[in-house]
Design brief:
213 residues; 2 domains; Beta Polymerase, domain 2; 8 helices; globular; alpha+beta; 44% helix; 5-stranded mixed β-sheet
Length: 213
Amino acid sequence: MKSGDRIRGMIACEAARLMYEDGVREYRDAKRKAAKRFGPEKALSLGSHLPSNAEIHEELARLIASTEEDLLPERLLKLRMTALRYLELFSDFSPYLVGSVLSGAVTERSDIDIHLFAEGVEEVEALLKAHGIPFETETVPIRKGGVITDYTHIYLDDDGVEIECSVYPVEQKRNRTISSITGRPMERASAARLKKIIAASLGEEEDDGEPHR
């Protein structure tokens, strides 16, 4: 193995460890912290030593599977059942589950990521208020292609599990967000598809009749 490939693999493993053990959530942050332990950050970032998000995700999934083989199924089922409740609660906003709870690479610190589509964030807030569910709203400006766009997130807490709801305009429902891991349209699941995934994990049969997207 070439030296550069070896360093790249070591950084990927260290970044995965930081995400697993230290709770670092963003691949970018884990990658930068891991790189600092192997040499000058600037030199590494300009070369081919930094692993892709997909490589780190693969190492993270492997680490979780090997370390928590006995705990993972129960934890994942619990998180998916919680996610399903919120997908059903947000049924008026075409909700989709995305992220680690869908992919299965979860830790005890994992949150639940849901995409919602509404005419305005006020509609989602009104629903939560009607059900007496506490929440916090945050608007974050993101630069993409030289254009700054405001993205709104609503944060909930369910028995210690954070649920992050990203609210998008209704007209963007067919435009799937690009995954930072694969660089392709993000994998997502409706309530119907999640029910099928849960049933399959329990060894049951359930046909939702909808294509996997």
